[in-house]
């Protein structure tokens, strides 16, 4: 029995060299379908234009690509800076084993955002314009610079995982020494840049006063976005690591994950208190009980993002059972996505008297970029030293590998 | 041109002939069919509200939300009054559409290389000393153009001297003042005018952006301090471990 399983594992991980065609599995089929739909979306967006690819209109100029692709893409990638700050700046060494994973998730997340930007911009080949054309009164200008710089920081933070695979020892040593001397500066810059643009993403909507529904419009949108991004980013990190352990033979001490969940709960509680105090201060409490679609969406968001997870994470059983923890984190992510879509889509609809349902091509394009990031993540975990793996490491770089094929 | 130009629309005088629409379309070379809403080929439209006709167009705010939002500075408030759009800079992010409190800018959704479109108060014509095409075309002087201060005075004179007018000039204090004013004998909210904040919109984001340098300085100092403590702790731990190993503690 044991030997059979060993062989199976062997074939799966060596399939790149062992067989010409990848095995058809459920998830691979899903990914293939998403990619096929994504290809059509790409064609629709770039060859036919916005009108064919989206349901965007003048009253709803930003839709799913901004709400899900950009706002959630950036927000859910906050785990990288949170863990890097914890390990390098605060010296919380117990999180070091998952540092690379969280940086990788963030890097892929930001890459997804940058790729999504090409879909989102009307004239994508002018994406470089903000580098030379400045308007420092624009929140979007600050966001674009922070995202550009932070994506670079993440690439540099992650680079050793790739560089250490370079066979030339001298180059490798030189680069790693240079990287080591730069690392703290990178992490520090990353923390500041992240803090700025995570909040400025909320700041984008400060100018929609009078248009954004009062349950969401607050002068503290920046604070709200920042406070919610960190726990949500950490939740994504937990989910990804759990999946690595389950499906990719990664070996991670599950206590680290329950330690993170111990941090997430108070962070979400603080966020909830901020939301409540803000609503009371702005005299917006009557809106909490109005019979409107916005009210329902607001409570859905609060239930998924604050109440549900805070209650669940207070249960010892949830914190120490990886599967329960995984689904609680999924709830946080769902709540976070609801919040960002509420701010960017639903809360703006009443004032503009419009009703926007994204076209299927909008979903497909976003899903395809996310799927690409997931696939890249999987291969990175399998072939690079991201997480320690259970069976002795596959000797993927052995010189005889081509000869076997 | 030294003075800031502005337009006054007197809703009591408008007869709904749509000459302004036609003149605007003609000067921009757009198809001449009348449209009911602002569009990439209609920078001004005359809407029917009850028995009144309300002209819609860019308000040319004194401190425009769109110009503060535009990350590449394609939208600008010029000294002469118009808020102009530089298509060569635009990257198509459409933040201006999100930001505009009056929901005026329109996007060319059907084009493969789409741009933002809106009225520019005939900036080119005004630079040559000509009035905006729509004003020139108005047969009953429902729209008049001129120096902003004089136009405001004229509006004030009209609403003070005639009791039929609502005692408010729409645009005088909306979003900190605009360059297009409306006066009416029917309350503005009944004519589809939106209640916008009284302060200039860019103030809303300027406060947040102003926090940026503080975040960097304070945050940077704080993080450096924390890092120093972490490093120091690590050094002390190493030293203590060494001392222990040497049997001196």
Question: What's the topology here?
Answer:
The complex is a heterodimer of chains A (405) and B (249).
Chain A: H1 2-13, H2 15-18, H3 26-48, H4 50-53, H5 64-75, H6 79-89, H7 99-120, H8 129-132, H9 139-163, H10 169-203, H11 221-247, H12 254-281, H13 293-313, H14 316-320, H15 322-344, H16 349-352, H17 360-383, H18 401-404
Chain B: E1 5-10, H1 19-28, E2 45-49, E3 52-56, H2 65-69, E4 75-77, E5 83-85, H3 95-99, E6 106-107, E7 116-117, H4 123-127, H5 133-137, E8 143-147, H6 148-161, E9 180-183, H7 202-245
Q: What does it look like?
A:
- The complex is a heterodimer of chains A (405) and B (249).
- With 405 residues, chain A is mostly helical.
- Chain A has a single domain, classed as Up-down Bundle (Formate dehydrogenase/DMSO reductase fold), CATH 1.20.1630.
- Chain A contains 18 helices and no strands.
- Chain A is globular.
- Residues 1-16 and 400-405 of chain A have low confidence and may be disordered.
- Chain B has 249 residues and is an alpha+beta fold.
- Chain B has two domains: 5-200, Alpha-Beta Plaits (2-Layer Sandwich), CATH 3.30.70.20; 203-249.
- Chain B has helices at residues 19-28, 65-69, 95-99, 123-127, 133-137, 148-161, 202-245; strands at residues 5-10, 45-49, 52-56, 75-77, 83-85, 106-107, 116-117, 143-147, 180-183.
- In chain B, the strands form four sheets. Chain B has a three-stranded mixed sheet with strand order 8-1-9. In chain B, strands 2-3 form a two-stranded antiparallel sheet.
- At the A-B interface, helix 6, helix 9 and helix 10 of A face helix 2, helix 3, strand 6 and helix 7 of B.
